[in-house]
Amino acid sequence: MKGKKILIVGSGGREHALAWKIAQxxxxxxxxxxxxxxxxxxxxxxxxxxxxxxxxxxxxxxxxDLTVVGPEEPLSLGIVDAFEAEGLTVFGPSEKAxxxxxxxxxxxxxxxxxxxxxxxxxxxxSLEKARQYIEKKGAPIVIKADGxxxxxxxxxxxxxxxxxxxxxxxxxxxxxxxxxxxxxxxxLEGQEVSLLCFCDGTTALPMVAxxxxxxxxxxxxxxxxxxxGTYTPPPFWTKELETEVMNKIALPTLALMxxxxxxxxxxxxxxxxxxxxxPKLLEYNVRFGDPETQVILPVLExxxxxxxxxxxxGRLAETECRWLxxxxxCVVMAAPGYPQSYAKGIEISLPAIxxxxxxxxxxxxxTSDDGRLVSTGGRVLGVVGKGDSLSAARETAYNLVQRIxxxxxxxxxxxxxxxxxxxxx
Length: 425
Ligand code: AMP
Ligand code: GLY
Known about the structure:
Largest sheet: 5 strands, antiparallel
Mean pLDDT: 95
Structural class: alpha+beta
Oligomer: single chain
Shape: globular
Low-confidence stretches: none
Bound molecules: adenosine monophosphate, glycine
Distance between the termini: 45 Å
Number of strands: 21
Strand order of the largest sheet: 11-14-17-21-18
């Protein structure tokens, strides 16, 4: 059988993890990453992830067999529609289906119609009406900008003053057009967990569950970030909980999207809160998570390529997806200052990797003209340890962090704390 040419779109840690996994597939004869980072250097092509026409020309010119889209931006710009119109195979949702992430108001309307358990909410375009609603409901309360705001458009307000201040910021232009409409919703308490599912429009296959650490500082303090680390599996996650989430959330969503004529294929990422009243959906994302992917793919035993292809061909029901029993932890090493303004161009030196239990996925890195590895972004490296227990995986990951030279690097020292504080680990 002829090997496949596969193009990955994006340049983060998620895309390095995808490239690492896909490069191991006997089905892949040629890999490209556009534009990639220093970790994916041997596969990189100089086309930006939001340059849909440039990517299309490249994929046609090289006769790429499968394109895998990492970030949300090209999806919300319609990359899947553009590729499919030219007869190219692409893994990801259409522009319309991607609205599950690009519009929080659309996402909440889908949840309501599909009877997915979620926080009670109202949508407002008028600042005055939104203010009255907050005054009526009181705190704690949650305010979300409708559009894409790079994960920063959500305010979890502990007091009414904080809520009103947050509302003024969001609707007053802090998030541009994304904040013209807001969703205001009930505050939910519980354990937060991400469940990502492979989808082919009809069938959904869950991946292993992951806990992310969004706050910048140890003890879940400090500012919200794109994610400072992840681990899998959370000790409270059970087969019963997975079945409940699939039956009450993933499958009703897929059925509704299909019935509306916008079937969902790609990765449906469920951001869940496990409350005292069962699992509730906080949000959908329409892509692999970052840094969730950096712990999910190291424990995926199956070849990823046939699964991605099955999603694009509506054959997921007959496709096998096996997982290792291992635990994995990813510690994000960020530039000093992140998530606020941070330095770039810091020189990094990586140690030799001594076992298959250790991995370093690059995010904001590049190679300078004189061949040095330097930082170019906020989140710079995802340092992964694998093991047969959470404590073993954690020790491996932090041991590797200690061997990396990255002056001033900021990272959390407590990734996996929720899992480690439970007795079984
Ligand atoms: P989202 O982008 O909707 O996932 O929100 C970002 C973060 O805000 C989530 O990861 C939660 O930690 C928090 N959050 C969002 N919605 C709620 C809610 N209704 N109740 C409590 N926390 C929330
Ligand atoms: N780690 C959360 C996300 O990818 O949106």
